[in-house]
Each structure stands twice: as C-alpha cells, then as structure tokens.
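About this split. The held-out portion is used to measure sequence recovery: a designer receives only the structure tokens and must propose an amino acid at every position. Recovery is the fraction of positions where the proposal matches the reference. Here is one held-out target exactly as it appears in the evaluation file.
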C-alpha cells in the first residue's frame, strides 16, 4: 500500500514568496492498482512523483510504502523517465549497475 498523508512541498520563489508545489495531498494507492496523474502543467504531478520516488523531500507530511516511510530512492520503487537519463558524474558501467547496487547485488 502506498499511503500519502498531508504531503506538501514548498519551494522558495524568486520574489521572496513561497511556491506551494503540493499542498496537503492525501491518498492511498492499493497494491496492483493503476493510477494516472492528470493535470495542467505546473500543478504538482512531477513533484508528487519525485517525492514518491524519494528524489525530493516533503516540506510536510509523509509518504509510506507498505508501512515504511520513503526518505530516499530505493530498490522497492522504479522510475521511468520521459527522457533518456544518466547520472552525468558516473561512467557507463556505474549507470548500468545502479539498479543492481540498490538491490544489494555485488
């Protein structure tokens, strides 16, 4: 079960104001569910997905997967990017081996 409770992400704005990318989002996603995030550009879809993946910390709230809080990327979740993405500081072998590393494979 993926459980999101009061998830908020706030970024500092260029004018000194805070930008609320997510504002107290709560939802449960049951195992084997298929969920689609639909909305206008800038409404927080990617922010929520990045928080679920563990790439982006929440300002407030919690995200748990099977009762364990998500605080960082992990092998229990996968991300498919819209564009080809590599870690620019890593070589080809390290990029390919990243998934295995998170699974604990030597």
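Reference sequence for scoring:
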């Amino acid at each position: 079960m993926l459980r999101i409770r009061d998830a908020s992400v706030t970024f500092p704005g260029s004018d000194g104001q805070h930008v609320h990318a997510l504002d107290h989002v709560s939802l449960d996603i049951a195992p084997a569910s298929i969920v689609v995030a639909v909305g206008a550009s800038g409404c927080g879809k990617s922010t929520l997905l990045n928080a679920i993946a563990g790439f982006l910390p929440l300002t407030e709230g919690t995200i748990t997967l099977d009762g364990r809080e998500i605080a960082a990327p992990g092998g229990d979740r996968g991300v498919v990017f819209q564009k080809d993405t590599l870690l620019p500081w890593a070589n080809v072998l390290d990029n390919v081996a990243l998934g295995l590393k998170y699974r604990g494979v030597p």
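Annotator remark: The chain has a mean pLDDT of 90.
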